[in-house]
Design a protein that fits this description.
alpha/beta, Rossmann fold, 2 domains, seven-stranded mixed beta sheet, five-stranded parallel beta sheet, 12 strands, 17% strand, disordered N terminus
Length: 336
């Protein structure tokens, strides 16, 4: 083994050289810190703050995992439409005027409002049902433009929800479907349900809900038309009024299936869909890549990797239903 030693004269030369290098590096580090500190993220949601609170927490945790902290090296501006889609264009314009570095959008209506507001600011979408079919992106592999992110594949799984509610209630012959036609993703999903219905031996009663005042009238129609089960298509207006919908469903004694487990936690019978919390957490990685210089047009849109089936056995008992064991053993969450 060879040992190297430095003479004092060498140290005398090395010490000022090291100090000089440190001095030269200080402006570089400071500039990088300032660039980070100036990062501004805009969040635009079709839904309400209450509904999005838990999911936003997952997104912020994903950012912290990547060393971004709100109030320290990033600023986060939030705007919520709470199901009032007509407000989305102005909310999107507000975020553009704030000169955010990236827009994170939840829901198909918010994604379209953001895309219409800017063709320059990168947009990361989190829960659009059919981004290709509704014109948000060119393709999942190469989205093009300034939009990328994740899809919750709602349009792909909506027919599966019809199968599940039929499995729970084999005698169901007429299934009511609540949808918001103002949401571009809802009518294509209704079409998928209509195509799946004949094989399951059910007819579909589609009832539109465009605003808050329509919800009570919609349930009156469903009762009058004697639907034997209910299916909700994913929508910000319906999600923002989750508790009211669950209450009306219980009063109508209707077995219903929803797209998010929060409905089940509030007393709904069952839900099936992508793990939304997981999608929000993964959205943070897109923001990180974009802030580091990646072009959204070159970032493929990702699909869900986790799906959740949630059931409420207490609600089943209240409805006089026995939940099939085939459903119980597959459930990711069982409320007793």
């Amino acid at each position: 083994m060879r040992l190297w030693t430095l003479r004092p004269s060498c140290l005398a030369v090395a010490r000022p050289t090291i100090v000089a290098l440190i001095i030269l590096l200080i402006p570089v580090v400071t500039a990088a810190q300032q660039a980070w500190a100036s990062a501004r993220i805009g969040i635009l949601s079709s839904s309400s703050p209450e509904r999005e609170q838990g999911y936003l927490a997952a997104f912020l945790q994903g950012l912290r995992d990547l060393r971004y902290w709100e109030g320290k090296n990033i600023v986060v501006d939030r705007r919520y439409a709470a199901g009032k889609f007509e407000t989305l264009p102005e909310l999107a314009a507000e975020l553009v005027r704030l000169k955010v570095d990236v827009l994170v959008v939840t829901g198909t209506p918010a994604a379209h409002a953001a895309k219409n507001a800017t063709r320059v600011i990168p947009i990361v979408m989190v829960t659009p049902a059919d981004p290709v079919g509704t014109g948000l992106i060119a393709s999942l592999a190469r989205p093009g433009g300034n939009v990328t992110g994740l899809t919750d594949l709602t349009a792909e799984v909506v027919a599966k929800r019809l199968e599940l509610i039929k499995e729970v209630i084999p005698a169901a012959t007429r299934v009511g479907v609540l949808l918001n036609p103002a949401n571009r993703s809802n009518l294509p999903q209704l079409q998928l349900i209509l195509e799946a219905a004949p094989a399951l031996g059910v007819s579909i009663l589609a009832v539109e809900v465009r605003r808050l005042d329509d919800i009570d009238r919609a349930f009156a129609t469903i009762r009058a038309k004697q639907a034997t089960a209910l299916l909700l298509i994913a929508d910000g207006l319906l999600g923002s009024n989750r508790k009211r919908i669950v209450e009306l469903t219980a009063k109508s004694r209707l077995p219903a299936i929803y797209w998010r487990r929060e409905f089940v936690e509030d007393g709904g019978l069952m839900s099936y869909g992508a793990s939304v919390g997981d999608l929000y957490r993964r959205a943070a990685a897109y923001v990180d890549k974009i802030l580091k210089g990646a072009a959204p047009s070159e970032l493929p849109v990702e699909q869900p990797t986790k799906f959740e089936l949630a059931i409420n056995l207490a609600t089943a008992r209240a409805l006089g239903l026995t939940m099939p064991r085939s459903i119980v053993v597959r459930a990711d969450e069982v409320i007793r």
